[in-house]
Sequence to fold (206 residues):
Amino acid sequence: MNFRYPNRKSRTVQQPISPSSRLKLNNSYANRGMTFEEDINHTNAHYLQIGKSVIHKKPTPVQIVSVDYPKRSAAVIKEAYFKQASTTDYNGVYRGRYIDFEAKETRNKTSFPLTNFHQHQIDHMRRVIEQDGICFILVRFKASQEDYLMEVPHLFYFWDQKDNGGRKSIPKTYFEENAHLIQLGYNPRIDYLKIVDELFFLRPKG
Fold:
């Protein structure tokens, strides 16, 4: 299925995993099973259930322009447009603070391409920081199945350099040295709030 942004550029959206495939994946915990988004959503649902935080994935307004009806009981969206440019994936409240983050994954083994972000997302994250909100990115390197939490000032540093002859990506080694590796668990799957506690609540401001 193709989605189009307001500037009419197409973007291919990954189709949902079928129920049979999902069951097969979920039965193999060693293979991590869920997609990155599903892992995060599962984590947020767990946080909500135990009263730890209220964090949700932001809905993106979509204008449907073409629908196919292969069956009377089923409809398939063939073409749609994003009504507006998105900001970040997730936001909510944690320990009285506004929290906002973007989640990305890459198949690249050695670096994280900055093309995964758009200028309006960077601008949004800067505004969150200016308002003393908690803002970061979660990145999954699919090849090594490693998840990292990185504070956005690191992202801003590489973003500001890319148009002035700097790198077009963030080396994986930079993540290893400057970001925070998140160990996969069961409940929650990706306990990113444990790192948020250390960075934004336990660490002295300076």
Helices lie at 19-26, 36-49, 119-130, 152-162, 172-178, 192-202. Confidence is low (pLDDT under 50) at residues 2-33. The longest helix spans residues 36-49.
